[in-house]
Amino acid sequence: MWSRRLERILSRRRAGIDTHDVGAFPRPALRARVLRLSLGAATLALVVVAAATARGLDTREEGLLPSGTTGVVVIDLSLSIADEDYHALRRALRRLIAEDASIGLVVFSDVAYELLPPGTPASELQPMLRLLIPPRLGTAVNPWTQTFRAGTRISTALELARGMLERDRVQSGSILLVSDLETAPDDVPAVARTVDALRRTSIGLRVFGLAPSNDARVLFEGFLDEGAFAAPEDEREEPASETSVENRLPQMLMLLVALFFLALTALERFGAGLAVTAGVGTRT
């Protein structure tokens, strides 16, 4: 019963010009075959391209730390950090917490202190958020006194971060410098040597700039590899909603899917309609 029904369905789909002498229509037969093969190949190609495009889609935001690394976050708390920079600083920490990063923590001005060892969950940064406020608004007791925050030596902090990673034998390490990049003039050569030393290791260095001046940014761009500056978030202090990122429509993939269905429709409409089928009988 099912075989007969299938035969009737297939016979309807192959409806064309029924003839006992298909060889009498060489050109229409060839034209129909070429058209069907072309539409079929185009449909298959669109499927392949759409699959490749879908595999390349990544709707996740790039993390502040390179994926798969244990990072040491190096935070500049010197007097050159302006009040508005503290909002960006807290945004950076919230991003690390949301990314569930594995981190160590260094805070510095002219001296540097290790606050958290490498491998600490970024959630441990949460209690620090209430302390990272502009000094003129600060009421809580914290270790960052005016003496500690007197000057800036970035090289000292980077050297401490590298030492922490080497001390703990971290295989995939990275450093995130959160700073306005205003270091002491006599520290610039030391920063250049430190960055060069990091480049010769497997430790990556990225920078989250706290509104650096043009001169400071140009100076560090000369030290760092291309793409080392992390993109800041938008003007909101709260981290961007993950759902808004995940719901972005991949326009190229949608276009490919639309073209696929268009090609499939054309194959069904024109390919089947131009088929030239042989008759049931036998040629004599």
Q: What does the model show?
A:
By secondary structure, the chain is an alpha/beta fold. It folds into two domains: 29-57 and 250-284; 70-245, von Willebrand factor, type A domain (Rossmann fold, 3-Layer(aba) Sandwich). 43% of the residues lie in helices and 15% in strands. It has a five-stranded mixed sheet with strand order 4-3-2-5-6, sandwiched between helices. A two-stranded parallel ribbon has the order 1-7. Helix 2 packs antiparallel against helix 8 (251-273) and helix 4 (154-167) runs parallel beside helix 5 (188-199). The longest helix is centred in the first third of the chain and has 31 residues, at 26-56. It is elongated. The two termini are 33 Å apart. The model is unreliable at 234-249 and 279-284 (pLDDT under 50).
Task: Name a few traits of the molecule.
284 residues; two-stranded parallel ribbon; alpha/beta; 8 helices; 2 domains; Rossmann fold
Q: Could you give a short account of the major beta sheet?
A: 5 strands, mixed
- This entry's quaternary arrangement is single chain
The total domain count is 2
Secondary-structure element sequence? HEHEHEEHEHEHHHE
Net shape = elongated
Cα distance, first to last residue? 33 Å
CATH overall fold name of the largest domain: Rossmann fold
Taking all residues together, what is the mean pLDDT?
75
What's the architecture of the largest domain in CATH terms? 3-Layer(aba) Sandwich
CATH superfamily of the largest domain: von Willebrand factor, type A domain
